[in-house]
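Exercise: predict the fold of this chain.
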Amino acid sequence: MISTPTRPTTAILAEDESVLRDELRQLLGELWPELQIVAEASNGLEAIGLFERERPELMFLDIVMPGVSGVDVAQHVQGRCHVVFITAHDAYAVAAFDAGALDYVLKPIDPARLAASVARTRLRLGSPPPRFEALLRDLVQRGAARPYLRWLNVSVGQGLQVVTVDEVLYFQADTKYTRVVTADGEALMRKTLKELQDELDPGSFWTIHRSTIVNASAIAGVVRDLRGRLYVRLRQRDDRLIVSETYAHVFRQM
C-alpha cells in the first residue's frame, strides 16, 4: 500500500519586531518541521493582504502592531483561518486561551510554552476554523489603551538584541538615537525619547530631564551639589543623572 504524503500546514507569521519574528520562525521550524510559513508580515494591513493572497490555514498574529492590530486581522480572518496570538501581555493571553478558540505565544518566547501551543494548535487544525466575536470584543476592551512597552530591539555594535524594559536603568537622548543603559552596558535604538515616553509606564519610568528617562526602581537616591543642582544616583552604576528644575517636584518627598 502506497501512503500519501501528508500535506504541509500553511501559515502566515505577522509580528512587527523582526528579531522576534526571526526567533519564532526558527523555533517553529524546530518544533513543527511540516509547517510551511508561506509569508511574513510586519503590520496588520500587510497581514490582511497576504492572507487574501495565500489563504493559509493558520496565522500567528501579534496583538499590538502599527495601524491595523492583530485583533483587527483576527476579526477579518475568523471562520476562515485558525489563529494563534502573539502577545507580551498576560491579560490578553489568559482571555484568549480561556476562550478555547485560540492559543497564544507569550513574549519573550519560551520554547516549552511554544511547544505546548504547537501541540494544541495541531489538534485544532482537524476542526473548521472557529468564529470568536465575543473574544475579540473582550480583547478590544482590554486593549483600549495601548499596552506599555515590555521589551525593546536595540543595536549593540553591528548586531541586534532584545532587552526587557525592566533591565533598563535609564534612557537618554543621543542625536537621532536613544541610548539604552543597563547594568551590563549600553545600546542604541532608533526611536526618539518622546516616542518612548509615550510608550513607557509612567509609574515605572520617570522623566527627570528633557533628555533623560530613568527607571524608578533603579534609583538609589538623590543628591544636590554645591550649586544646588539635583542629581539621581543609581543602584547598579556610578552614573549621576541631572534633574532639571521642571521635574524636581518628583523628588520632593524623597
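Check your answer against the key: The domain at 151-251 is CATH 2.40.50.1020 (OB fold (Dihydrolipoamide Acetyltransferase, E2P)).
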